[in-house]
Amino acid sequence: MDGVCESNEYEDTAAMLFWSDEAYARQCAIEEWSDYKPTSIPLEEFMNNWLYGMNQDCLLVGVNWNVKLIGLEVEPYELYKELEERSEN
Fold first, then answer.
1. If you count DSSP H runs as helices and E runs as strands, how many of each does the chain have, helices first?
2. Do the Cβ atoms of 4 and 59 come closer than 8 Å?
3. Among 20, 56, 69, 76, which is disulfide-ready with 51 (CB 3.0 to 4.6 Å)?
4. Are 43 and 83 within 8 A, CB to CB?
């Protein structure tokens, strides 16, 4: 499941939300997102398609936000580098 929200850190910036676990995503599928269903994205697709596109669209990545829509916000390229480093080790 992904959703787009206003950044909690920056004005006029949006964050696209992703969760590392289906249970986390399900917790946020309430109110206006009640029709959303968590869907897995293969890591390679996430890194090469989603993060690339989000970088082009100037979106931040919201990682594992809670039900109050608060959580980590990172630049797509920074997350890409982090995931790439972890996959090499």
1. 4, 4
2. yes
3. 76
4. yes
The two three-digit tokens of residue 9, written as one number: 């850190």
Give the integer Cα–Cα distance in Å for 19 and 56.
21
List the structure tokens of 13.
């910036």
Of 48, 37, 46, the C-alpha closest to 16 is 46
Distance, CA of 40 to CA of 53 (rounded, Å): 18
- Give the span between the Cα atoms of 58 and 45, in whole angstroms: 19
pLDDT tens-digit map of 65-84:
999 989 999 999 999 999 99
| pTM (predicted TM-score) | 0.85
Tokens coding 27: 């917790």
